[in-house]
TrEMBL record:
Molecular function as annotated in GO: oxidoreductase activity
Similarity comment: Belongs to the short-chain dehydrogenases/reductases (SDR) family.
UniProt KW Chloroplast keyword: no
Pfam families membership: adh_short (PF00106)
Keywords associated with the record: Oxidoreductase
Lineage: Bacteria, Pseudomonadati, Bacteroidota, Cytophagia, Cytophagales
Name of the featured protein: SDR family oxidoreductase
Ketoreductase domain span: 5-200
Transmembrane annotation, as ranges: none
Annotated SMART domains: PKS_KR
Keyword Oxidoreductase listed: yes
């Protein structure tokens, strides 16, 4: 008997979140989906009592998050799978970004996710089972992207948080996965979605080149988000849920390069870096 019948998906009015919601409903799951733009979500997927519950939720407002989760449990009868999908990209060299721009990216991508976990976990823990998918990025595993440092920092935070959270809740039958997509064809890179520096500096040529490359890539990303959604669902139904789920051949290539670079540094500095304990008394 399946236990993952009620899903809670954030950031569901567009992109991967919306596609995931549609695929879940097509497979017979009950879904609560959240967005700051509720009319847009309701237009994309009409409400269906007992099956689909669209909800307004502001990730930066903890009370709003708690209310959305309480409403989900009350109206759909439970909570089995949480997908923290909401987030956005912030472009700009660190020197170019204002403190407010940095803080907002962390508020949405990290602290909003923490609000969801804090208020969803008591439900999952009490029932003795549950699944969590935190949508990170391959940029949460490798940060070699000029101009994406703050965004990568938020996703590195999601990865580290998910690893620790998985260790904390394993004893309660809860499984957690950090999902690390490569480039998928959603609106993530669009002018409307992507945060840009308020004060760009001409000195950062590598950042401007990265910006131009990503602008050209928008709408041409190689990854099919419908296939990404299908893999997430497949992972939820698997006997052993992965802790790390990379999505896309590009994500696999970038991850392999990062692992190779780390192994190189480990080997190069092993002799000096491991001779750092106190000397044993003779």
């Amino acid at each position: 008997m399946k236990t993952n019948n009620v899903w809670f998906v954030t950031g569901a009015s567009q992109g991967l979140g919306l596609i995931l919601v549609r695929e879940l409903l097509a497979r017979g799951y009950a879904v609560a989906a959240t967005s700051r733009h509720l009319p847009e979500l309701q237009q994309a997927v009409p409400p269906e009592p007992g099956r689909f519950l669209p909800l307004h939720m502001d990730l930066r407002d903890e009370a709003s998050v708690q209310q959305a989760l309480d409403t989900t449990v009350r109206q759909l009868g439970g909570l089995d799978v949480v997908v923290n999908n909401a987030g956005y990209g912030q472009l700009g060299a660190l020197e170019e970004l204002s403190a407010a721009e940095v803080q907002r990216n962390f508020e949405v991508n990290v602290f909003g996710l923490v609000h969801v976990l804090r208020h969803a976990t008591p439900y999952l823990r009490a029932q003795g089972h549950g699944q969590v998918f935190n949508v990170s990025s391959v940029g949460g595993f490798t940060g070699d992207f000029p101009g994406w440092g703050v965004y990568c920092a938020t996703k590195f935070a999601v990865d580290g948080l998910t690893e620790s959270y998985a260790a904390e809740v394993r004893a309660f039958g809860i499984r957690a996965t950090t999902v690390k997509p490569g480039y998928f064809r959603t609106g993530f890179l669009s002018a409307e979605s992507l945060g840009r520096p308020s004060a760009p500096l001409g000195a950062y040529q590598a950042v401007r080149e990265s910006q131009a490359q990503h602008d050209a890539l928008s709408g041409q990303q190689p990854g099919d988000p419908a296939k990404a959604a299908a893999v997430i669902i497949e992972a939820s139904e698997a006997a052993e849920q992965p802790l790390h789920l990379f999505l896309g051949p590009d994500a696999y290539r970038m991850a392999a390069r990062k692992i190779e670079a780390v192994q190189h540094d480990l080997q190069q500095w092993e002799l000096a870096a491991t001779a750092t304990n106190f000397a044993l008394a003779e």
